Amino acid sequence: MKFIVAFGLAAALPTALAFSAVAPAAVADAGKANFAKYKSALPADLNVVEAGGWYAMQKLAADPKGELVKLVKDQLKASGGHTDTDKSGTVDALVALLYSRGKGFESDLVDGEWTSVLSRQGKNSPRIQKVVEKTETDKTAENIFDTKTLTFSGITYTPHHRGMLKSFVSYNPTSEGFDKSINGNIVVRRIMCDITGASFKYWKFPTLPLPLKKKGGYLDFVYMDQDIRVTRGNRGGLFVHFRPAFLEKVLKE
User: Fold this and answer.
1) Each residue of 21-39: b (16+ CB within 10 Å) or e?
2) Is the pTM above the cut of 0.85?
3) CA dist., res. 72 & res. 250, Å (int)
4) Shortest CA distance to 171 belongs to which of 129, 211, 215?
């Protein structure tokens, strides 16, 4: 009996080892193929060294969206939902790879509610944004686009959801900053943004208008599909949003 079991294990072992070797090899081949296919569409300002090098980018190129989703999920679970990140190299690589897919701003896709899941402020970001980022979680920040009025609102809640800071922005897609996909299609990247107002409401107290108005900003769409949105602000901030239903699904996996 022992001989039979041992023989069975010995016979199955090569097959198992072969299968385990094939899967990573297939992923590596897919990464190389995708990287070669989209390399010409990578952003011109990409710093390959800071992004981890060409080899690291090739590995991530097999499924950059899936890798970003996994990074976000792992970080949210490990940090208690906090959206600020210190994985700059990996994030930069994934953002560059997603950019090369040629999926920028689309009115039909952007409409509706989004939840903030990852953010990284730029060197020139306003101090208030940097302070808010430290307390922001996937349950305290959301973004709602209304394509009929060409406006969107940013909503940030205090930790216990008693306070709500709300900003109002009017936007307009522009030809500035556009590029082309590898297939030659025009990709709209930029929307011009004017902050038209802001307010703060705490618990049962009346809403307090805030004197916050600013024109001339913009938001660049690095990547967007039906599930996720990656954008950069004019001051260098990087923002990743998920659709609420998609985020709920991801966190349950």
Assistant:
1) eeeeeeeeeebeebbeebe
2) no
3) 9
4) 215
